[in-house]
TrEMBL record, chain A:
WD repeats: 18-60, 61-102, 103-144
Keyword Cell membrane: no
Protein name (record): WD40-repeat-containing domain protein
GO biological process, one term: mRNA splicing, via spliceosome
Keywords per UniProt: Cytoplasm, Repeat, WD repeat
CDD domains: WD40
Annotated InterPro entries: PQQ_b-propeller_rpt, WD40/YVTN_repeat-like_dom_sf, WD40_PAC1, WD40_repeat_CS, WD40_repeat_dom_sf, WD40_rpt, WD_repeat_MORG1
Domain of life: Eukaryota
GO cellular component: catalytic step 2 spliceosome; cytoplasm
Automatic annotation (TrEMBL), chain B:
Signal peptide range: none
Comp. bias regions, Low complexity: 458-479, 680-689
Protein name, as recorded: G-patch domain-containing protein
Gene Ontology CC entries for this record: nucleus
Organism expressing this protein natively: Lentinula aciculospora
Taxonomic lineage of the native organism: Eukaryota, Fungi, Dikarya, Basidiomycota, Agaricomycotina
MF (Gene Ontology): RNA binding
Length: 310, 923
């Protein structure tokens, strides 16, 4: 981490702007693998596939009847899952552009959907405060398990090989450890909108609606760092790690992209950052491998790809 | 051409030899049809070639009744596929252009034709204008100006007679006449009479009947029956203004029977008045037909008889001169004829003045109730006086449910109980026994505090017992089935808003659930005994109602996560509480306190979160059971497997704590390990997790949490050889037989292996199983137990998987391994192999080689052991004899860690290796 510290500032040069959505974009995800493509889902009920480098729209997936709130791409890029206002999880085949499965069962809009590592299970967290785990191997339409511990809407979800981490509006981050068979719930005290763990799963980056981003130690629940300065009080903004997990990046409700140093929680220059979106930035995601690329999606209907000037 | 003509023509100068001159205009015979139009329309066409076409030349064969078969596509609507999908075009903008669709718009030619066909030429429904007649007829009228008629005919629509009327007129009928042949004067008069009788009119009699009888007359017109429309809400036959008698059919104006109706058979003297006996009661012809009496009228006197349409005298007296019809009610509506307006109002409203409310009185229903309660209690005390009154006041339903039995009532009334009815078992007991029982029960019931008491002394309930009929005053605690009570204790508690009640309910359930419990409930201090009883009844019923469902039904329902706490209902009228100034001040003052209180209300967790002290305070860790399928999908062993069959590893010392730094094989199995010399990593894992001690994040996922790993191997008992023969050896034996035929004395080794082959087939598995399965605590394995196919089969499969997954680990051994593998593969697909010696070798060799290899391996391993890392040895060995689950993809990253552990294991390595060989020999 320290090696890259301070050397690479945040990619703040606009590479391309992905325009095409008619309305706010709620989610933008990189594809897996080399992550050359971007999937965005918006209020206009479509999911669009973009070439991140050229900025061209490749395909639009439309089957949803309501807004799209979450997308998750499978590890092999062959399929992806999406969810939103229509209370069922859609599993898509990327090549045909058709849904292969629709998983109904939730009683409210589904805020987040996530594959597990080998895309055999998809988890969906909903406004109805449950997380449902769906089996994609078997043909059964009922969920494997329903996690009902949350007392309010589930806003975020993360699955790694053996844990399921959920963030809920009730202010808890719940870590379901499948191996240990235990549930660790950390009370943050404010509605949790995003939880992003580090690669080593030792710390969690928790975004909450009190304009704080906290770095929580996953082992004991202690707060390691607190990142402030941005404004995030009513929308789901997702903070993520910068390259090499040396920085923390978050787009806020004023359309500014903030960056902090992970270790000392200092705001990186420029401070305050320029306003790059006209409306709230709903999603910030850093390229999984490329050091100098990240995307921001905003309610102004654009998704922007940022790179370093080369 | 004749010669004369020729000559003549030649004289004229016409060239007779030219073709023109020789042209022939005569046609002989029928000319053939022109070639291009060779088809004769009247030609015979076979039936199957005929086509039916409509007048427009379209092939049109549909509709079953027009002899067709096709419908839909060709001539009707749409396309080949059916209806043509059309884009929706909004008609919103040009709504004005839209015409009202007629039925004809939706009809095709056929329908139109049908309509045309069905149209009647003569419209019988045309209206007839009988008054004016045909206009042309009036034209010859002299006093009508022809101009006016022309104008009239132009302006006014021509009045139409119906065709029938026109025909009739042509036949001589005139308006106003009847239809039919002309009739004679006599008949005509008769008709007049009939019609007049019907109409009630008298016709003037014509005098000149002589003259009139000479002519025939047109019949009288049939009067049109006019049915009045009924547009009022009166009853049928009633006309407004009809008197009561009119409506009954009594004709007042009918003067036919003014006197009494005397029966026809009797004469009546001039001086005699009509007697009762002379009246003809049964005469139906009288006008008063309706006034029949079903009983003998002579039995009654006139005064006592009431009949609606009474006798004439009555009627007169009622409606006649005494009542002018102008009488009206006070509100102006007329009094119905036949009714008298009463002089006295029917009901007098009596108003009572409100009682004087004493100053300072406040409505307090509670007080009233408590009064009634105390009264009741008093009534209990002196039954004789008050009870009766009270009982009278109670409505029947309440009285019925008040719980008084017949016996109780009897005792209240002071009856002597019936001698023949013994009341309970106690009556059969001796007095002494009863006393003793009472004492026992009394000592069992103990009074706790606040109504729930654990008593040691006999209390009031037992003191009341001897009275033969228990009264309502006795606190009765209804029994609930202990099972139900126990279930209800786990179930929903129905009184969340009332904590006292909740506690009492729980106490009640506890007392009922456990018969030997010493909890008894007592009435609360302000509670009367009936109240207490009803409360207990309520508890008993709630226990039945709210006990959790059992079995299949329970799975269908889920309990609400949040119990709705309804607002606390305060009984009685609402009286705003009087707030004096001081309390208001205090309210103002307590604002800050409230805030402080709110902060206090915050749980320590919230407090910690508020001040940012995340950590142990904000963290809660609770056990959570992932679904088994979820574990499977995540490639993780079930963390809390259901306690199935007790496994041998669990019998190990539970107190032995796990320490990851110490190789577990060393501490758990010392002597036995020395004996068998076998330590496997999974065995070690078993040792550690058999303890069931607390888990540490550090050791999770290192394989040691997998306490069921290899369980089937440990519990596995070697099945009898026959099973293996049945499964595996059949082919092998065949082939070995073949081999024996072919290479009987060729190879010494082969012979040896042939002998052993049978055993080997099984041993490829039993190597692993029986070797590993002999740690210290494991009981000796018996070989000839029936095979467990469930455990057996997966082990076999997994073994294969394991060999492939751990392939990468055995890079050093690749040469040898590869050989082995080739052969193994060959076993699988040997059917495809070429015939000849390769087949035999392939079939037989693995077995032999396997054993040999093994031995060689072990030897070489042993020799190599000092040089090489023991890691590989262990892993390889593990692969050979230890059958493990395939590594889950998620755990792949952890393999490194596992290997590290294995290398730790190497510290025990030397013994291990030696021991292994011996184990092989042992088999």
């Amino acid at each position: 981490m320290t090696s890259s510290r301070g050397q690479l500032p945040l990619a703040r040069t606009l590479h391309v702007t992905l325009e095409g959505h008619k309305g706010p974009i709620n989610v933008a995800r990189y594809a897996k693998g080399s992550a050359k493509y971007i999937l965005t889902g918006g209020q206009d009920r479509t999911i669009r596939l973009w070439n991140a480098n050229l900025g061209t729209e490749i395909k639009a997936f439309s089957a949803h009847g309501y807004e799209i709130l979450s997308i998750s791409v499978a590890h092999d890029n062959a399929k992806f899952a999406s969810s939103g206002g229509d209370r069922s999880v859609f599993i898509w085949d990327v090549t045909t552009g058709m849904t292969t499965r629709r998983l109904p069962g939730h009683m409210g809009k589904i805020h987040v959907v996530e594959f597990n590592e080998d895309a055999s299970v998809v988890a969906s967290g909903s406004f109805d405060s449950t997380v449902r785990l769906w089996d994609l191997r078997a043909q059964s339409r009922s969920p494997i398990q329903i996690l009902e511990e949350a007392r309010d809407a589930i806003q975020t979800l993360h699955i790694d090989s053996t844990t399921i981490i959920t963030g809920s509006v009730d202010g808890h981050v719940r870590t379901y450890d499948i191996r240990k068979g235990e549930l660790r719930s950390d009370y943050i005290g404010h509605p949790v909108t995003a939880v992003v763990p580090t690669q080593d799963s030792q710390t969690l980056l928790v975004t909450t609606l009190d304009s704080h981003i906290r770095l929580i130690d996953a082992t004991n629940g202690k707060m390691l760092n607190d990142f402030t300065g941005h404004i995030n009080s009513s929308y789901r903004c997702r903070a993520c790690f910068g390259h090499g997990e040396a920085t923390v990046v978050c787009g806020d409700e004023n359309g500014m992209v903030w960056a902090w140093d992970l270790l000392d929680a200092k705001r990186l220059q420029p401070n305050p950052p320029p306003k790059v979106h006209s409306k709230v930035i709903t999603w910030t995601e850093h390229h999984p491998s490329d050091a100098g690329e990240m995307i921001t999606a905003s309610a102004d209907g654009t998704c922007k790809v940022w790179q370093h000037p080369t | 051409m004749t010669s004369r003509l020729k000559r003549k023509l030649g004289d004229i100068g016409v060239d007779t030899s030219s073709a023109k001159a020789n042209e022939n205009f005569c046609l002989i015979g029928t000319p053939l049809p022109p070639l291009e139009k060779s088809r004769d329309t009247g030609e015979f066409v076979p039936l199957w070639k005929q086509e039916v076409r409509d007048e427009k030349g379209r092939r049109r064969l549909h509709g079953a009744f027009t002899g067709g078969f096709s419908a839909g596509y060709f001539n009707t609507v749409g396309s080949k596929e059916g209806w043509t999908p059309q884009t929706f075009i909004s008609s919103r903008s040009d709504r004005t252009k839209k015409k009202v669709a007629k039925p004809e718009d939706f009809m095709d030619e056929e329908d139109m034709q049908d309509i045309r066909d069905s149209r009647k030429i003569v419209d019988t429904t045309d209206e007839m204008d009988l008054t004016t007649g045909r206009q042309p007829e009036g034209q010859d009228d002299p006093d009508v100006d022809p101009l006016t008629t022309a104008l009239q005919s132009a302006i006014l629509p021509p009045s139409k007679d119906s065709v029938g009327a026109r025909i009739l007129k042509k036949m001589g009928w005139r308006v106003g006449q009847g239809i039919g042949p002309r009739i004679s004067f006599k008949q005509w008069r008769l008709q007049d009479l009939q019609s007049s009788a019907r109409a009630g009119l008298t016709l003037p009699r014509d005098e000149d009947s002589e003259e009139a009888s000479k002519h025939t007359y047109a019949p009288r017109d049939t009067p049109v029956l006019v049915v009045e429309r009924k547009d009022n809400s009166h009853g049928l036959g009633y006309r407004p203004g009809m008197s009561l008698n009119d409506s009954l059919g009594v004709k007042s104006g009918n003067g036919s029977s003014t006197g009494p109706n005397i029966s026809s058979g009797f004469g009546l003297g001039a001086l005699n008045d009509a007697d009762e006996d002379d009246l003809d009661v049964y005469d139906g012809s009288s006008a008063n037909v309706r006034n029949r009496i079903a009983y003998d009228a002579s039995d009654h006197h006139d005064g006592s008889r009431i009949s609606l349409g009474g006798s004439k005298s009555n009627f007169r007296s009622a409606s006649g001169p005494s009542l002018p019809t102008t009488k009206t009610f006070r509100d102006g509506t007329a009094v119905l004829p036949g009714f008298v307006l009463s002089a006295k109002p029917v009901m007098e409203d009596r108003w009572y003045p409100l009682p004087d409310i004493p100053p300072g009185w406040k409505p307090d229903p509670k007080r009233v109730w408590s009064q009634s309660q105390t009264q009741e209690q008093v009534s209990v005390a002196n039954k004789e006086n008050v009870e009766q009154d009270n009982k009278a006041a109670i409505p029947y339903g309440k009285w019925k449910t008040s719980g008084l039995s017949a016996d109780e009532r009897g005792s209240i009334l002071g009856e002597t109980p019936l001698p023949s009815a013994p009341r309970s078992v106690f009556d059969y007991m001796s007095q002494k026994d009863r006393e003793r029982l009472k004492n026992i029960t009394a000592s069992l019931h103990a009074p706790p505090t606040a109504g729930i008491q654990t008593t040691t002394t006999p209390d009031a309930t037992s003191a009341d017992q001897p009275s033969p009929a228990p009264t309502t005053a006795t606190p009765r605690i209804p029994r609930t089935d202990p099972q139900i009570a126990r279930a209800a204790l786990n179930g929903f508690k129905p009184f969340p808003t009332n904590p006292i009640k909740q506690a009492r309910y729980t106490a009640y359930l506890q007392s009922q659930a456990d018969i030997s419990s010493i909890i008894t409930l007592e009435p609360l201090p302000h509670q009367s005994i009936p109240e207490f009883n009803s409360e207990m009844e309520e508890y008993a019923q709630s226990a039945v109602v709210f006990k959790p469902m059992s079995g299949a039904m329970a799975g269908r329902f889920t309990t609400a996560a949040i119990v709705e706490h309804g607002p606390q209902v305060i009984e009685g009228l609402h009286t705003p509480a009087f707030e004096d100034k001081s309390s208001q001040d205090s309210a103002a003052m307590s604002e800050d306190e409230k805030k402080a209180k709110e902060e206090q209300v915050l749980s320590p967790k919230e407090n910690a979160a508020r001040i940012g002290m995340y950590g142990s305070l904000t963290r809660e860790t609770i056990p959570w059971q992932p679904a088994r399928l979820l574990c499977k999908r995540f490639g993780v062993k079930d963390p809390n497997p259901e306690p199935k069959a007790e496994e041998p590893s669990s019998t190990q010392d539970p107190s032995s704590t796990f320490d990851s730094s110490i190789p577990p094989g060393a501490n758990a199995s010392d002597a036995s390990t020395m004996d068998y010399g076998i330590v496997s990593s999974t065995n070690a894992g078993n040792n550690s997790t058999g303890t069931g001690g607390p888990r540490d994040l550090a050791n999770v996922g290192l394989g040691d949490d997998d306490d069921t790993q290899g369980r089937d191997t440990l519990t596995y008992e070697r099945p009898s050889v026959d099973i293996f023969k049945a499964i595996f050896a059949s082919d092998d034996e065949d082939s070995s037989d073949e081999e024996g035929d072919e290479k009987a004395g060729s190879d010494h080794e082969l012979n040896e292996t042939k002998v052993q082959s049978l055993e080997n087939t099984g041993n490829t598995i039993t190597f692993a199983t029986s070797i590993v399965a002999v740690p210290s605590s494991v009981p000796a394995l018996v070989d000839d137990n029936p095979v467990d196919f469930n455990t057996f089969k997966p082990t076999f499969v997994r073994r294969e998987a394991r060999t492939t997954t751990t392939d990468s680990d055995k890079q050093e051994k690749k040469g040898k391994k590869d050989k082995k593998k080739e052969k193994r593969k060959a076993i699988v697909s040997f059917m495809d192999d070429d015939a000849g010696d390769s087949l035999n070798v392939v079939v037989e060799k693995p077995k032999k080689k396997r054993k040999k290899d093994k031995e060689k391996d072990e030897k070489s391993l042993k020799s190599k052991q000092e040089k090489e890392t023991s890691l590989n040895v262990v892993v390889e060995d593990d692969d050979d004899m230890w059958v493990e689950k395939p590594a889950p993809p998620g755990v792949n990253s952890l393999i490194d860690v596992k290997m590290a552990e294995f290398s730790v294991l190497a510290s025990v390595g030397s013994e291990v290796q030696r021991g292994r060989k011996r184990a092989v020999d042992f088999l």
